[in-house]
From TrEMBL:
InterPro entries named among the record's database cross-references: 2TM_dom
Keywords: Membrane, Transmembrane, Transmembrane helix
Protein's name according to its UniProt entry: 2TM domain-containing protein
Organism: Symplocastrum torsivum CPER-KK1
Transmembrane segments: 85-102
Lineage: Bacteria, Bacillati, Cyanobacteriota, Cyanophyceae, Oscillatoriophycideae
A UniProt-annotated Pfam family: 2TM
Length: 164
């Protein structure tokens, strides 16, 4: 290396560092989990205080819990849609069959089939629409109902324990 050659100093923004470290950790073959001590050690090497790490870990746990609740809500909505679709198939098959057997053609049942199809299509659209104000309102309503049910169930279980 000659005297005139200079070293290239690399610098990275915080987002770049996060992406590089995520890729590096993902590429490690043998490590599937890190212990809490290892996490603290990595944070110390990066100059992150223990208090900041614990706060970030708390936030991460809250976000993970929130995401799990949203996943549960989405599964609930999908199972509800499947039940609606099953009812749609059974009832409309019956009505089309009844209409065909009584008249020899499909007439009035076609209107019911079309209107119910429109309703089912809108329900399908809403079920798979995972963003927006309507989704948030539906999620909040479901979560309040979920919390109420859980609270009542817990109180009944505690009451049953006292009685036994």
């Amino acid at each position: 290396m000659s005297v005139f050659e200079t070293k290239i100093i690399r610098s990275y923004q915080q987002e770049d560092i996060q992406q590089i470290l995520n890729l590096a950790i993902a590429r490690q073959d043998n490590v599937e989990e890190f212990s809490h001590e290892q996490l603290v050690e990595i944070a110390n090497e990066l100059g992150i205080s223990t208090a900041t790490l614990l706060e970030a870990e708390r936030d991460w746990l809250l976000q993970k819990g929130e995401q799990q609740k949203r996943n549960d809500f989405n599964l609930y909505r999908q199972s509800k849609l499947k039940r609606r679709f099953g009812k749609y198939l059974i009832i409309n098959s019956f009505l089309v069959g009844l209409n065909f057997l009584s008249n020899g053609q499909i007439s009035w049942s076609l209107y019911i089939l079309l209107f119910w199809s429109l309703s089912l299509g809108l329900n399908t659209w809403n079920t798979y629409q995972l963003q927006g104000e309507e989704y948030e309102e539906a999620f909040q309503k479901w979560y309040r109902k979920y919390q109420l049910t859980k609270s009542i169930s817990t109180r009944i279980n505690n009451w049953m324990k006292v009685l036994n």
